[in-house]
Amino acid sequence: MQKVSIGKQGEVFAAAYLQSIGHTILFQNYRKRIGEIDIISLKNEILHCSEVKTWNEKNGFHPKECLHVTKRDRMRKVYFHLLQEIPAFCHLTPSFNLLHITEKKEVRFYSSIF
């Protein structure tokens, strides 16, 4: 249960961070049968699809390593479902991002990582 709580707190920090740099949060935990995108936001005609990882760097590897081929494919498929549901988003440029929340509650934003 603690892991879920830490993850939810990380998503709150991530959303607040995105808003602080000018993003409009459109969806949080946008779920489809095939997967989920943690945060979908909009800034400057770019539709940001972000994965949030609350991560202790002592784990021995970087959270970017969690965005393996399967996870990236699922995020893309969820993105295409979103476009089918809301065709008005089709003109927006997509960006797939990672928001890493450190144990010190710092946010590291990696934009357009795939």
From TrEMBL:
InterPro entries: Restrct_endonuc-II-like, tRNA_endonuc-like_dom_sf, UPF0102_YraN-like. SUPFAM superfamilies: Restriction endonuclease-like. The lineage of its organism: Bacteria, Pseudomonadati, Spirochaetota, Spirochaetia, Leptospirales. Belongs to the UPF0102 family. Gene3D superfamilies: 3.40.1350.10. This is YraN family protein. PANTHER family: UPF0102 PROTEIN YRAN.
